[in-house]
Design brief:
Number of helices: 6
Mean pLDDT: 94
Distance between the termini: 30 Å
CATH superfamily: dinb family like domain
Structural class: mainly alpha
Radius of gyration: 16 Å
Shape: globular
Strand order of the largest sheet: 1-2
Number of domains: 1
CATH topology: Four Helix Bundle (Hemerythrin (Met), subunit A)
Length: 176
């Protein structure tokens, strides 16, 4: 039997709540949206690239957002000393690029585990808690956890737009 991406029932974003409830609710809405874009597809179809010259795939997006969840919530905000899941010095964009031999079931399990670990890490952080981000140009920025939530919502929203176009190319399925 061929593996298929799991079906997902997306929860509505919150309409009322305190700041953390709103940030977590909107982030969960976008997490669910990514999974919804992948729902019902075989592992092979999840590896279908968008259009040339791009090699962007739905499975690549799942792997990328696994890395991003880990990077911002656990490594940066919570200060956990973790390695990347897919990216290496030899393949710095391995999350997006190393798809041919990727195991979709393992990648979706890694995504689910990383989202849960990010939730647990964030639960112990205040929204106004800060950390220092070192930039590639040698500079540094002071960032708070609130910024991480807003950035993650933006990251998912942008990539969910990509996912929508890729899914439409694969089988014509569209949606919000």
């Amino acid at each position: 039997m061929t593996w298929r991406a799991p079906e997902i029932t997306r929860k509505n974003e919150p309409y009322v709540g305190d700041e953390r409830t709103m940030l977590e609710g909107w982030l969960d809405y976008h997490r669910d949206t990514l999974l919804l874009k992948c729902a019902g597809l075989t592992a092979e179809r999840l590896k279908t690239p968008s259009v040339e010259p791009s090699g962007l795939t739905l499975l690549g997006l799942v792997r990328h957002l696994t890395e991003v969840e880990r990077w911002w919530f656990r490594i940066r905000a919570a200060g956990q000393p973790l390695d990347s899941v897919y990216c290496t010095d030899a393949s710095p964009d391995g999350d997006l690029d190393d798809i041919a031999d990727a195991d979709a079931a393992a990648d979706f399990a890694a995504y689910a585990a990383e989202v849960e670990a990010a939730r647990q890490a964030a639960a112990n952080l205040r929204l106004d808690q800060t950390f220092t981000r070192r930039r590639r140009d040698g500079g540094a920025d002071e960032i708070n956890v609130r910024w991480v939530y807003v950035h993650m919502i933006e990251e998912y929203a942008r990539h969910n737009g990509h996912a929508d176009l890729i899914r439409e190319r694969i089988d014509g399925v569209t949606g919000d």
